[in-house]
Amino acid sequence: MLQTRPDLITCLPMGGYLIIPSKLIEQLYDYRQLSNIDTEAGGVLIGCWRNRVVNGVNKEPFHAELTDCTTPHRRDKRSRYGFFRRSSYHIKKVLQAWKHSSKEQSYIGEWHTHPEPHPKPSNEDIAQWQQNISGNKAILIIIGQKSNWIAYWDGFSAVPLPNLVQDAR
Ligand SMILES: [Zn+2]
Prior knowledge:
alpha+beta; 9-stranded mixed beta sheet; 18% helix; binds zinc ion
């Protein structure tokens, strides 16, 4: 019998969980830049924020659950040290997820790869996030050759998150 692999989980700064299906992260690992001709890859992360309920009252978004992602499209611009989403496929897939989930799932962040073992965001990465997602919260993932960098964007800066562990709940 096929056994489903457990989801991966880490903690957000406000105390909630970030949940990533193992299938989704494995899809991102397929784009790791392991050979020296591999170009950067990236896409958007799709999912939803879950509110905390205190005394029956919905509080601010607390948990984040990823459900899907987009992967590079041939119209995107890819190089060894850069990835730029150009195809409308990314936004179309987000809209589709939104429609098919009763408006629950939407854009929740972005991911891309780096040709380095243990990735850190570049100055250009940070400048782009400050331009594109300023004031909004998001989940950011950079897939390196050996490890990943995963962060919570609080609207203004990136807060790196602890390593993912398998969800044992
Ligand atoms: Zn980068």
